[in-house]
Amino acid sequence: MKPGRPVVITRTQPGNARTARAVRAMGFTAIACPVSQVVRSRSLIHANGADALALTSANALQALRDIGPLLHLPVFTVGEGTAKAAREAGFASVTSADGDAEALARTIARALPAGCHVLHLSGEDRAGDLAGMLEVLGLSATTHTVYRTRLARGLTARARAALADGPAIVLIHSARGAARFLALVDAAELTAALARLEFIAISERAAVPLHTRGLKAHIAAQPAENSLLAALDELAKRRGAP
Length: 242
Hints:
It comes from Glycocaulis abyssi. One of its GO terms (molecular function) is uroporphyrinogen-III synthase activity. Keywords: Lyase, Porphyrin biosynthesis. Its EC number is 4.2.1.75. This is Uroporphyrinogen-III synthase. The chain is an alpha/beta fold. Helices cover 37% and strands 22% of the residues. It contains nine helices and eleven strands. The strands form two sheets. Strands 3-8-7-4-5-6 form a six-stranded mixed β-sheet, sandwiched between helices. Helix 1 (15-25) links the parallel strand 1 (6-9) and strand 2 (29-32). It is elongated. The N and C termini lie close together (11 Å). The model has no long low-confidence stretch (mean pLDDT 92).
């Protein structure tokens, strides 16, 4: 297959590699440019009376040293990608909110009786206060930080070359990722290249840093990986080819 248009993938590693494989399978030239890397704590977490488990990222599952003590719990996830990872890990009851932290809180509150306790496994940086939202909705919650992210110091060599050479598509998975990517582009003295890029963001919230800089972005229909890739496919069809 002839390599297609370059697609710069800013997603945090290790998820970046999974997205790159999917993008490559679609006929594009996948260019990894993770804006950060997950550093896992490998914590040993016990249920401690929790009635359910909440996950806002698949990274939380991968960060655990042993998921055995939690496998009996029903799991609620922010999106289908994390839900798939939970099922593959062995959880039998998994529900995806197909949205953001607010949608996840509402999904959990509809499914559980008032007073139930939710264990939220999270990264050090959180997009919203899920535990606080759940408490407002009549549940109790405990948040355990099981991983953190380390910021990339610069663009990858391939990403720098792609931005310097001409137009490319950039996939944005989060607002923090967008802000970090823009900072790395500025630091590489490639700010002028931003006007030549086409951005596809996983949600309106993720696109906010782009809009702040006057940059336009195509928005995925749902805040999920498969919707982001569908938006990429749709854009390619409108442009005639990958």
